[in-house]
Design a protein that fits this description.
Elements: H1 3-20, H2 23-34, H3 37-44, H4 50-56, H5 64-76, H6 89-95, H7 98-104, H8 107-113, H9 116-122, H10 126-131, H11 135-141, H12 143-167, H13 169-174, E1 178-182, H14 188-196, E2 201-206, H15 208-211, E3 220-224, E4 236-240, H16 248-261, E5 268-273, E6 275-276, H17 285-298, E7 305-306, H18 307-316, E8 321-325, E9 332-337
Parallel strand pairs: 1-2, 1-4, 2-3, 4-5, 6-7
Antiparallel strand pairs: 5-9, 8-9
The structure holds S-adenosylmethionine.
Length: 339
């Protein structure tokens, strides 16, 4: 066998081992959170030894050898470092993903992955095959699951909100009238926008059962309704991580209602969604494909879309002009105009 063939075989085999054991990364992360290691390191406030971490873990029979082996892997994976690094913005943000890690690695979601092949064979969500109902109904029945799910969504939404406000700040300054956040949940995003851009008249629009739980926010009006029926009139519309949960047909209906709600000449919609680039080399391109599978697992008609998919949807929904603005975050901003 030629050396190059041998090298290629070894590389292929190594990649396969990596894939076989990919799940151990999320399991090790979960373990670290369950043991409270992140909090121990943070509350220590400086470089910390293994024995100090061990002392912080609540266990009378801690196996420090096992702890060392766990930490060794996570250092190798760049989750922790053996060298002191001054705390910066990046590491603070990473902490905010804790609820998301806990949700994704929770048995109730992990078991869904075992039904992935069934999803491919028959369609339908893997979650419903395991639990007999969709996520929304399951959350309705289980307050614990509901909290876990909402906390996970909230922590990613917070992260994205910060990046949008930073990456798209000039545009928010240029809004001269009203902005409605369609499917805005409890209104955190528009509340953040008006805080930095108080000249905007902000409306948070969502289903009645969501709006009833929405806290009063300075400068935000909450309006309940159904986006498939009508959307409140505004100069601009924000649709953040809403359309990826719906089929193309439903998205077109929503977009047509958006087009009716904004001025034909000057109106604009801002869609915050991931734009799939299956062969891209960007930092989030592979994660985008993973999120697409997560949508397959959890959302009956949900999917992530490529730029071409977005272009077709927008055109059919009454928005022939669009521009994609990359921000330093997993989703991009897709700005679209009816004229
Ligand atoms: C994935 S969440 C996104 C929430 C928020 N935009 C964010 O980025 O965190 C989708 C939102 O759409 C809302 N929604 C679903 N169907 C709706 C409808 N028919 N009319 C209005 N809002 C709806 C849900 O209640 C939920 O708050």
């Amino acid at each position: 066998m030629e050396l190059t063939t041998m090298e290629a075989m070894i590389q292929g085999e190594a990649k396969l081992w990596g894939n076989i054991f990919a799940f151990t990364d999320s399991m090790a992360l979960r373990c670290v959170l369950e043991l409270g290691i992140v909090d121990i390191i943070h509350s220590h406030g400086g470089p910390i030894t293994l024995s100090q971490i061990a002392a912080g873990i609540d266990s009378p029979s801690l196996n420090i050898d096992n702890l060392a082996r766990l930490m060794r892997l996570l250092v190798r994976k760049d989750i922790f470092t053996t060298h002191h690094q001054p705390s910066d913005y990046g590491s603070c943000e990473a902490l905010n993903l804790v609820p998301f890690i806990l949700m994704q690695s929770h048995p109730e979601l992990m078991t869904s992955w075992l039904c992935l092949s069934q999803c491919v064979k028959e369609g339908g969500t893997a979650f419903s095959k395991v639990h007999g109902c969709e996520v929304r109904d399951f959350a309705h029945k289980s307050p614990k699951f509901n909290k876990m799910f909402n906390d996970a969504m909230a922590c990613t939404a917070k992260l994205v909100a910060e990046r949008i406000l930073w990456g798209y700040r000039d545009w928010f300054s240029s809004i001269n009238g009203s902005l409605v956040d369609v499917g805005g949940g409890t209104g955190e995003m528009v509340a953040k926008i008006v805080k930095t851009h108080p000249h905007i008249k902000a409306i948070n629009f969502d289903l009645p059962h969501v709006i009833t739980t929405a806290p009063m926010q300075l400068g935000v009006s909450h309006i309940e309704g159904n986006m498939f029926e009508a959307i409140p009139n505004a100069d601009a519309i924000l649709l953040k991580r809403v359309l990826h949960g719906f089929s193309d047909e439903d998205c077109i209906k929503i977009l047509k209602n958006c087009a009716k709600a904004i001025p034909k000449k000057t109106g604009k919609i801002i869609i915050v969604e991931h734009v799939l680039e299956p062969n891209g080399n960007g930092p989030f391109d592979e994660t985008g494909l993973v999120f697409d599978l997560i949508m397959m697992l959890l959302a009956p008609s949900g999917k992530e879309r490529t730029e071409l998919d977005w272009k077709k949807l927008l055109k059919e929904g009454g928005f022939p002009h669009h521009k994609i603005i990359k921000i330093p975050a997993f989703p991009s901003i897709i700005e679209a105009h009816p004229a």
